[in-house]
Amino acid sequence: MGKKKIITKDGETTAPEAAEVSVAPKKASAKKQVLNGTAVINVSYNNTLISIADSKGQVISWSSAGLLGFKGSKKSTPYAANLVAKDVFEKSKKFNLTNIKIVIKGIGPGRESAIRGLAGTGLNILSIMDATPIAHNGVRRPKPRRV
């Protein structure tokens, strides 16, 4: 990338002067206070993911068993789910979270343990809701075989 030149009608070429760039000072962001939050626990046979969002639905902290260093079949253990719950609470401490609603999705070995981990942190649990997707009828059955 070369320097840009300005050509005037007289045919003279001049280099543009370095314009002074004013940098606005960064605004000191006020700490966001989140009193009521929603914890979504996504449990599968392979991993456990927990995210905590505010009342608008914006995620303020999240964690998973793989993020904590568990690999392979250790990610799906109840112990890993308990540690994930404690880790996500530690990340959300700076927002002064006090009340929480829990929404749990999926089936796996860490369901109960993840809820116990969040309950053991001292948060007020307002409700626990199961949002596991359930199939209603599913796909069409194959035609019977003609022999």
Secondary structure elements and pairings:
Blueprint (H helix, E strand, L loop, with lengths): L5 E2 L5 E2 L21 E8 L4 E6 L5 E6 L13 H15 L6 E7 L5 H9 L4 E7 L17
Parallel strand pairs: 3-6, 6-7
Antiparallel strand pairs: 1-2, 3-4, 4-5
Helix pairs in contact: 1-2
Descriptive account of the structure:
- The chain has 147 residues and is of the alpha/beta class.
- The protein has a domain at 36-130: Ribosomal protein S11/S14 (Nucleotidyltransferase, domain 5), CATH 3.30.420.
- 16% of the residues lie in helices and 26% in strands.
- The chain contains 2 helices and 7 strands; from the N terminus they run βββββαβαβ.
- A 5-stranded mixed sheet has the order 5-4-3-6-7, with helices on one face.
- Strand 4 and strand 5 form a beta hairpin.
- Helix 1 packs parallel to helix 2 (111-119).
- The protein is extended.
- The protein starts with 5 loop residues before the first strand and ends in a 17-residue tail after the last strand.
By secondary-structure content and strand pairing, the structural class works out as alpha/beta
Write the CATH homologous superfamily of the domain at 36-130: Ribosomal protein S11/S14
CATH architecture of the domain at 36-130: 2-Layer Sandwich
Order of helices and strands: EEEEEHEHE
| Unreliable runs | none
Please state how the strands of the largest beta sheet are arranged side by side.
5-4-3-6-7
